[in-house]
């Protein structure tokens, strides 16, 4: 979808070499690197990217919410971060922790929330217990934040 909308310089990271091979086979990425989010720094300099996305990784037993400052580090001031998580029962504790961390960074002035949108039919449920209101799907949330510009200090 990003490529269809004109984004041509795409870099990606994943903790799985097999997933990186699959991503490379799409022909959409200019750079792919092995990196375990939350366990090691992103392989990019500070303030490098106009936009950072994390889709399908922020969840219980996956990428910890403590990764947020590292995502901010590699985003340019004024740049955008698009993050997602699921709202299924087994992810509610993680979602609450994530939203607390998102809010703390917003209150500190690191970024500004532009959108927090619930998506009812996020992905197919693998069990009835995980299905949102017996729809066969798991709901989720898309968050979009803009990194605040670094304030300029006045001379004098």
TrEMBL record:
Organism superkingdom: Eukaryota
Parts forming coiled coils: none
Classification via Pfam families: Methyltransf_11 (PF08241)
InterPro entries per UniProt: Methyltransf_11, SAM-dependent_MTases_sf
One term of GO molecular function: S-adenosylmethionine-dependent methyltransferase activity
Gene3D superfamilies: Vaccinia Virus protein VP39 (3.40.50.150)
Protein name as annotated: MET27 protein
Species annotation: Daphoenositta chrysoptera (varied sittella)
Gene from which the chain derives: Mettl27
